[in-house]
Specification:
mainly alpha; Leucine-rich Repeat Variant; two-stranded antiparallel sheet; 8% strand
Length: 190
């Protein structure tokens, strides 16, 4: 519904994020507020401590990340930020959930242990993040290292003998990362 354009405010969206993180099996989920803001951010460990299947959430997460509805996000809703620079940034409504997807990819020991369609959706969501979300913006800038790790982990799937479709998607992720961030992709070797 959020991806379809329903009006939602930042606090409600952050509550939805908290419940989603909890459902996906991440541990140490907490909401931390900043002293100068009414906004909180959702903190969680980036490794999953459960074998819950995330396939039920993947289609909706893909729709949400792919939604083109503008949304104003402050950096303190994504991480601890310095109070003077907590000006709203115009991002997409799915930007709040970018860290969850990156944690799903980087926190998985082996993406091939997940069902095929779940792995495929995770990789497609990663491509959507690379193409549509402004990782240079202040609220998302701190996730650039996680994006690089996720892209690297997906690239490591290519030589494992996976099926053709997943291999092509993983190579597309690497190609996209190298093209969009050539200065930080130095150790990506295809």
């Amino acid at each position: 519904m959020i991806g379809s354009g329903i009006d939602i405010n930042l606090l409600t969206l952050l509550r939805v994020k908290k419940y989603l993180v909890h459902i996906l099996g991440f541990s140490n989920v907490s909401t931390l507020s900043t002293p100068t803001s009414q906004v909180f951010y959702v903190a969680f460990e980036h490794t999953r401590h459960t074998d819950r299947d995330v396939s039920a959430c993947m289609n909706e997460l893909l729709s949400l990340l792919d939604a083109s509805h503008p949304f104003s996000v402050v950096a303190s809703a994504m991480t601890e930020s310095l109070p003077p620079n907590d000006a709203p940034a115009a991002l997409l409504v799915g930007s709040i959930f970018v860290d969850i997807l990156l944690a799903l990819i980087t926190g998985s020991e082996d993406l091939l242990d997940l069902p095929f369609l779940t792995t495929k959706r995770l990789i497609e969501c990663l491509l959507v993040i690379m193409y549509k979300h402004d990782m240079e913006s202040r609220p998302l800038r701190h996730l650039q290292g996680n994006l690089r790790k996720a892209a690297r982990q997906v690239l490591n799937l290519a030589p494992t003998g996976i099926n053709y479709e997943l291999r092509q998607l993983s190579l597309t992720v690497a190609q996209t990362y190298i093209r969009l961030w050539p200065n930080t992709s130095g150790s990506f070797v295809l």
